[in-house]
């Protein structure tokens, strides 16, 4: 019997929202001593120079969403109040434990980082100041600002919530829009958004689906002979994947029909009574199968 896979829950909504400060309820007090500290003064200075770049993390309190509990960003909130801000951007958490945010500090997807930096640039903030505020090199800011250049809107939408390496975007830029969408769909189906997977899909991409079809495919550390071999292997794997996917869908469909039939069968008390008296082991197996199907839903 296979053990049901543990469901993975997402700890954050992916869209940033703007909230008035009066709606945000802190769970810690930022004392006068803390406000006089060097760290707080640095945060104060950074926000004064470039505005709020990293969003506060909040969780709605109640169904009306009139109040939001602050999970992370108490110093930033205090600084915003000192500077006279009336509202700020926030990331909505679906997990009320603040350690989740701290554990996954790089939780903002690259496309979200791109949007945040663009927003700051549009406000007239120099990239040098953004880099200083985020403790990043100026080249890193430029990389994030230009992240979606060469990426079609549909592909960007598919990746908006994915925490993936910047090198994945580099591989996708070499493909035409239709191939970008196709490649992301494959990555989604197999649950692999790694750089290695993106590069493998690039190797497998037919020349006519490349942005520069006449340019030889080059991948660091791989010879032209090895790339050609990988193309052949990827074609074979892709065909096998499609066959397995078709078979899997058929198996799932048949399994669903069988479970539905068993469920209807065991709703009949006379049948259950008969099985219990004459075929108890079969009844136990049917009940186990139904229980497993409910657990895996």
What features would you describe in this structure?
The chain is of the alpha/beta class and 297 residues long. It folds into four domains: 12-108, Alpha-Beta Complex (Conserved hypothetical protein from pyrococcus furiosus pfu- 392566-001, ParB domain); 109-147; 153-244, no CATH class; 246-295. It has 14 helices and five strands. A five-stranded mixed sheet has the order 1-5-3-4-2. Helix 6 (127-134) crosses helix 7. The chain is flat and about 80 Å long. The two termini are 16 Å apart. Mean pLDDT is 80; it is low at 1-12 and 96-106.
Topology:
Blueprint: E1 12-20, E2 24-25, H1 32-35, H2 38-50, E3 56-61, E4 67-72, H3 74-82, E5 87-93, H4 98-103, H5 110-122, H6 127-134, H7 138-145, H8 153-159, H9 166-173, H10 177-190, H11 195-204, H12 224-265, H13 269-278, H14 280-295
Parallel strand pairs: 2-4, 3-5
Antiparallel strand pairs: 1-5, 3-4
Biggest β-sheet strands, sense, barrel: 5 strands, mixed
Count of DSSP E strands?
A: 5
What count of structural domains? 4
The CATH class of the largest domain is Alpha Beta
End-to-end separation in angstroms reads 16 Å
List low-pLDDT spans.
Answer: 1-12, 96-106
Structural class: alpha/beta
Helicity range: 55-70%
Estimate what percentage of residues fall within beta strands: 5-15%
CATH superfamily (homologous) name of the largest domain? Conserved hypothetical protein from pyrococcus furiosus pfu- 392566-001, ParB domain
Which second-level CATH architecture of the largest domain applies?
A: Alpha-Beta Complex
């Amino acid at each position: 019997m296979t053990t049901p896979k543990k469901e993975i829950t997402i700890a954050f909504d992916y869209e940033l929202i703007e909230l008035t400060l009066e709606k945000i309820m802190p769970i810690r007090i930022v004392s006068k001593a803390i406000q006089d500290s060097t760290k707080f003064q640095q945060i104060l200075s950074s926000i004064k120079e470039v505005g709020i770049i990293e969003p506060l993390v909040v969780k709605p309190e109640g169904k009306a969403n009139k109040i939001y509990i602050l999970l992370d960003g108490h110093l930033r909130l205090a600084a915003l109040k000192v500077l006279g801000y009336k509202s700020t951007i926030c990331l909505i958490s679906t997990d009320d434990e603040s350690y989740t945010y701290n554990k996954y500090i790089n939780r903002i997807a690259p496309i979200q980082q791109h949007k945040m930096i663009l927003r700051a640039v549009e406000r007239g903030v120099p990239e040098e100041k953004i880099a200083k505020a985020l403790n990043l090199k100026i080249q890193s800011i430029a990389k994030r600002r230009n992240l979606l250049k060469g990426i079609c809107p549909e592909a960007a939408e598919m990746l908006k919530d994915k925490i993936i390496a910047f090198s994945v975007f580099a591989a996708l830029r070499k493909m035409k829009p239709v191939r970008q969408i196709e490649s992301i769909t494959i990555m989604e189906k197999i649950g692999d958004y790694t750089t290695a997977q993106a590069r493998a899909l690039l190797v497998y991409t037919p020349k006519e689906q490349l942005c520069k079809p006449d340019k030889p495919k080059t991948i660091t550390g791989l010879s032209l002979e090895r790339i050609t071999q990988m193309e052949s292997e990827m074609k074979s794997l892709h065909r096998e994947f499609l066959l397995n996917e078709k078979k899997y869908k058929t198996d799932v469909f048949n399994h669903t029909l069988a479970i539905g039939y068993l469920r209807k069968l065991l709703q009949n008390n006379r049948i259950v009574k008969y099985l219990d008296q004459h075929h108890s082991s079969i009844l136990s197996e049917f009940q186990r199968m139904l229980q497993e199907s409910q657990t895996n839903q």
